[in-house]
């Protein structure tokens, strides 16, 4: 029944669409979507698709009234969700006898929405289903059907792997690797849809964000999005299989977040234009007129002063390698759990805290390696230089970060400056290429010679740290240990550090020797607490 008098849908449907940003006469450019889908499949837009996306494209509709159930069943009128899915649409079009063009997703992204040349909207689940003869009726049915969690369709089997991960192993790097960024950044960007000379129209993003948030795109953002818009690294389960933090250079992710972007801009002291998000929607990415890129949500920080440097950081590893399996140990995994211990190491006597001081920990997983955790004072960067030199003494062909350490480099090596992006820094150690390959397959484990790779995870905290009581003190003499036992601890700044070794240092000689070297680097006691 038509309760609005103008459209063939109910007042409920109109209320939901209006809350999503629709208005009578709404019209946005579709050029950006058409160009990108043409890059990433054999999609050819027809007039019915253009009309539909011009009116509804970019909207995210929610059931009404909005609550914890209905808001989880979002329908997204975003055709780019179907990128690299042209085979699925071709098969559905052939089965239905009509050309389907993608216009969005339903069922929390589990199914696609496609429209035929005569304007009929279809739902693509395990097969294509006609929603209704007319677009208005189809929208009314779709919104009603998607308004409860129990009505959502769930695929019978596991979701197929995102095309990014398949492309990652087939793309080849080009001449931009080196002059602009690292070879790995080049490979990740190409897998995510970038290529040299790419220039997509930005009209769609520009018109939608101007209408909904009053954002005015500046030239730096326009140039950046023309080259890198809709490029990103998708999330995949489990979390520890992610070599890089998820990110998406889609400015429409800030659709309803104008106030947040304005607040970040005020904190940064510059005008900012949204260019995407990372960390599964936990951080906005925004660009200033000079091309500098900022990140944040409640607070803001400078990610990088130039676009290319920002891309380098976005594609920097949060895990040392990109090769994982469901059963093999994951390289870079932190073995949180019952076997990890927390100590304080510095130039002062080493003490053991009664409680963990880490500010955040990931969910325990079945990871390889053993983590010995410390809180360290400001001497940590200099002590790491000594630790690297001891590593070179252990292995003359020492590899750091997966690459050989050149002769004379230990004396010049410096710990990279901490980045204000909430991520831990990592320094990885191995004896050479053979151990690097072993690491890829086995994770943190001992090889046939009883040795294995190890790593130092670290994070700097500029704020003070206070502990009421410390215990388990190891010092150069019993008297010094007794003087510190039971006292409090106060540091003006500190580092949280984890030494990840193949096995428990309390039982494995090699792992014990690594922790021994780390403690010796501070000039303090070297006993491993048990």
Summarize, please.
This protein is α+β, with helices and mostly antiparallel strands and 530 residues long. The protein is 29% helix and 18% strand.
What structural class do helix, strand and pairing data support? alpha+beta
Round the mean pLDDT to the nearest integer and report it: 82
Helical stretch count? Answer: 16
Strand content: 15-25%
Q: Radius of gyration, rounded? A: 27 Å
Detail the topology: elements first, then pairings.
Elements: H1 11-19, H2 31-39, H3 47-56, E1 60-61, E2 75-76, H4 86-96, E3 101-106, E4 111-115, E5 121-124, E6 128-130, H5 135-145, H6 163-168, H7 183-191, H8 203-213, H9 219-228, E7 232-233, E8 247-248, H10 258-268, E9 273-278, E10 283-287, E11 293-296, E12 300-304, H11 307-314, E13 341-344, E14 350-353, E15 370-376, H12 380-394, E16 399-400, E17 403-404, H13 409-412, E18 425-430, H14 433-442, E19 454-461, E20 465-467, E21 470-474, H15 478-484, E22 489-491, E23 494-501, H16 509-520
Parallel strand pairs: 13-15
Antiparallel strand pairs: 1-2, 3-4, 4-5, 5-6, 7-8, 8-9, 9-10, 10-11, 11-12, 13-14, 14-21, 15-23, 16-17, 16-18, 18-19, 19-23, 20-22
């Amino acid at each position: 029944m038509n309760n609005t008098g103008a459209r063939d849908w109910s007042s409920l449907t109109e209320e939901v669409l209006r809350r999503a940003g629709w208005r009578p006469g709404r019209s946005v450019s579709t050029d950006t979507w058409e160009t990108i889908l043409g890059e990433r499949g054999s999609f050819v837009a027809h007039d019915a698709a253009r009309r539909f996306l011009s009116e509804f494209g970019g909207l995210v509709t929610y059931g009404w009234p909005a609550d914890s159930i209905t808001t989880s069943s979002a329908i997204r009128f975003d055709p780019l969700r179907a990128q690299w899915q042209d085979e699925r649409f071709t098969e559905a079009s052939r089965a239905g006898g009509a050309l389907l063009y993608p216009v969005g997703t339903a069922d929390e992204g589990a199914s696609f929405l496609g429209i035929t040349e005569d304007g009929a909207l279809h739902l693509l689940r395990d097969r294509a289903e006609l929603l209704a003869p007319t677009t208005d009726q189809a929208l009314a049915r779709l919104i009603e059907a998607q308004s409860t969690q129990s009505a959502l369709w769930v695929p019978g089997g596991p979701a197929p792997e995102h095309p990014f991960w398949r492309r990652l192993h087939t793309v080849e790097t080009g001449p931009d690797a080196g002059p602009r960024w690292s070879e790995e950044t080049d490979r990740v960007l190409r897998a995510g849809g970038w290529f040299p000379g790419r220039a997509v129209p930005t009209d769609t993003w520009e018109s939608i964000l101007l209408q909904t948030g009053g954002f005015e795109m500046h030239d730096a953002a326009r140039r950046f999005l023309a080259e890198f818009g809709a490029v990103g690294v998708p999330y995949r389960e489990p979390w520890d299989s992610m070599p890089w933090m998820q990110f998406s250079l889609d400015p429409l992710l800030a659709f309803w977040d104008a106030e947040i972007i304005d607040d970040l801009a005020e904190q940064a002291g510059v005008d900012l234009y949204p260019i995407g998000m990372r960390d599964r929607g936990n951080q906005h990415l925004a660009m200033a007129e000079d091309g500098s890129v900022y990140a944040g949500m409640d607070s803001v920080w400078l990610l990088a002063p130039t676009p290319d440097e920002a891309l380098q950081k976005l594609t920097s590893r949060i895990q040392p390698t990109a090769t994982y399996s469901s059963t093999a140990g994951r390289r870079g995994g932190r073995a949180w759990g019952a076997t990890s211990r927390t100590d304080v190491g510095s130039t002062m006597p080493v003490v053991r805290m009664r409680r963990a001081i880490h500010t955040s920990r990931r969910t325990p997983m079945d990871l390889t390696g053993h983590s010995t955790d410390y809180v360290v004072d400001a001497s940590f960067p200099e002590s790491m230089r000594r630790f690297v030199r001891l590593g070179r003494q252990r292995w003359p062909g020492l590899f750091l970060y997966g690459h050989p350490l050149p002769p004379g480099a230990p004396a010049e090596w410096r710990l990279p400056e901490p980045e204000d992006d909430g991520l831990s820094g990592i320094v990885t150690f191995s004896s050479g290429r053979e151990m690097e390959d072993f690491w890829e397959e086995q994770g943190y484990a001992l090889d046939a010679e009883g040795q294995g790779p190890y790593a130092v995870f670290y994070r700097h905290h500029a704020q003070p740290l206070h502990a009421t009581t410390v215990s388990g003190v190891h010092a150069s003499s019993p008297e010094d240990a007794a003087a510190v036992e039971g006292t409090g601890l106060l540091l003006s700044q500190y580092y949280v550090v984890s030494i990840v070794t193949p096995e428990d240092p309390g039982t494995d000689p090699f792992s014990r020797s690594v922790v021994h070297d780390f403690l010796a680097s501070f000039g303090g006691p070297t006993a491993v607490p048990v």
